[in-house]
Design a protein that fits this description.
single chain; alpha/beta; Rossmann fold; 2 domains; seven-stranded mixed sheet; 10 helices; 17 strands
């Protein structure tokens, strides 16, 4: 166990229409059993952060937002009982304390990303291999503010990781701007590709939406050898997708032409596009619809006769975070991921960072350096 004594700072969010407010707080002298204290080196403004501040999705108020970040471990708590979901590596060890997804011990100085969520490892969902839907799930950047223990989001100088939080070491060669989105965008796309099934040469993949998730999916599918077509109404986004390995970028794809269709825009029209674009035996993975919207009709006869599979993905499992880091470490020089992030902004410029993130034609992410 290691100790620390200093002051932290976090950005308090007080609801729609209110500016962020910086608050100082004491760092814990000792992390609790199974906890890990991390200094946040860089965080990025995710699309769901924007949705929260605009009132498009519910979130506790007040709170500390931010769930895409990279940082260094500064203190590690005492050992705690193992937290492990069925088929997933443990993140705690009774003998040696917290462990990374690959099973190695968490050590002071490790440069890491951590999952958007911490799970209990014991509930029926965790035992079924669905830790991302734990019945006692705690999500970074989505928790109600506890002023006694406020370090639960990425828009802060430090974050205190709860027991059951998957962590992955990030190689120093991967820039902060590239590494931070692994905690949400990249890991989510890894889960989407996992749900789609193995891809390889000859597979035809449609990606609907060319935002952060979309271009990441393009790069992952292209890396696997698939022929990838992107559908997005915005010319600039279509052009960007070509830089990430898309064979073509279109406004309206051909109906019934694809083996796999990935919906990452969240737009109802995008869901319809995915379903209409499935060839016989094809799979549609829907991951963009994370806020309330109108229902989309589904033709059950077409689904049955087409032998279609429709899968929903939300959050991700620990193995997907590891896959995200492996992908970025291997491919960040091949694909221009660093160019997807604007800034960086200081923590006291968080309002400006959010304004920049929501501007027309903005980079998919804005970076914040606490």
């Amino acid at each position: 166990m290691t100790t620390t004594a200093a002051t932290a700072r976090y950005a308090r969010w007080d609801g729609v229409g209110n500016p962020f407010r910086l608050v100082d707080a004491p760092l814990p002298a000792r992390p609790g059993p199974g906890e890990v204290l991390v200094r946040v080196d860089l965080a990025t403004v995710c699309g769901s952060d924007l949705h929260t501040t605009r009132g498009h999705r519910s979130s506790p108020v007040p709170g500390v937002l931010g769930h895409e970040q990279v940082g260094r471990v500064v203190a590690v708590g005492a050992p705690v009982g193992r937290h492990s979901a069925a088929g997933e590596p443990g993140v705690g060890d009774p003998a040696g304390g917290p462990r990374h997804v690959d099973g190695t011990p968490v050590r002071v100085g490790d440069r890491i990303v951590w999952s958007v969520a911490a799970s209990c490892g014991r509930c029926p969902r965790c035992r079924r291999g669905l830790p991302q839907k734990c019945t006692d799930l705690r999500k970074y950047g989505h928790e109600p503010l506890d002023e006694a223990r406020p370090l639960t989001g990425g828009f802060a100088s430090h974050c205190l990781l709860a027991p059951g939080t998957p962590t992955v070491v990030v190689p120093d060669a991967v820039p902060d701007l590239v590494a931070a989105p692994a905690s949400c965008a990249t890991a989510t796309v890894a889960a989407v590709l996992d749900a789609a099934g193995p891809l390889g040469p000859g597979d035809r993949v449609l990606v609907v939406g060319a935002g952060m998730l979309g271009v990441t999916a393009v790069a992952m599918a292209a890396r696997a050898g698939a022929e990838v077509v992107v559908a997005d109404p915005h010319t600039g986004r279509r052009e960007r997708a070509l830089q990430f390995g898309a064979a073509a970028a279109v406004g309206s794809p051909a109906a019934g032409a694809f083996d796999v269709a990935l919906e990452l825009s969240g737009a109802p029209d995008g869901v319809r596009t995915c379903l209409d674009s499935l060839d016989v035996g094809a799979t549609a993975v829907l991951a963009g619809s994370v806020s309330p919207g109108p229902a989309v009709e589904l033709d059950p006869e077409r689904l049955v006769r087409g032998l279609h599979t429709v899968v929903g993905v939300h959050n991700y499992a620990p193995r997907h975070l590891a896959a995200a880091v492996e992908f970025l470490a291997a491919e960040h020089d091949r694909f221009p991921f660093a160019g997807l992030t604007g800034g960086p902004w200081a923590l006291d410029e968080l309002d400006a960072a959010f304004a920049a993130a929501g501007a027309p034609g903005a980079a998919p992410r804005q970076a914040v350096r606490p």
